[in-house]
Write a structure and sequence with these properties.
By secondary structure, the chain is mostly beta strands. Helix content is 14%, strand content 48%. Strands 9-8-7-10 form a 4-stranded mixed sheet, covered by helices on one side. The protein has a 3-stranded antiparallel sheet with strand order 2-3-4.
């Protein structure tokens, strides 16, 4: 099991966190808009090819045991580590004005997006 993949470690081999390349593909191949679904704010990604959708809640993040920015920001870890700093990894960051990828310290509590492999 990969120590960089919380889903494989916790749920089994058929689940994984997306790579940075997959996040870039999501951003390039989908239209993303900030919206509210069932009372939850977040980004709705809609495929430019087949109309499939993925809703990413603005779940906030945790630092020092404090949950912050719930409803206005969402951060989702990838399994891709920064090549210069092994304590850093890439993540998808979204809010009402922007959606992009960034990198940050893995000690920050960010959401995990589950991708099931066939």
């Amino acid at each position: 099991m990969s120590q960089n993949n919380a889903l494989t470690n916790g749920w089994g081999i058929e689940w994984r966190m997306p790579s940075l390349d997959q996040i870039k593909e999501l951003l390039n191949e989908c239209n993303c808009q900030w919206t509210t679904r069932n009372g939850v704010s977040g980004r709705l990604a809609t495929s430019k090819h087949n109309g499939a959708t993925l809703f990413l809640p603005g779940a906030g993040y945790s630092y020092g045991g404090v949950l912050d920015d719930v409803g206005s920001r969402g951060d989702y870890w990838t399994r891709t580590l920064d090549s210069s700093y092994s304590s850093y990894a890439y993540y998808l960051s979204l809010n009402s004005g922007n959606v992009d990828w960034k990198y940050g310290n893995r000690s920050i509590g960010r959401s995990v997006l589950a991708v099931r492999m066939p």
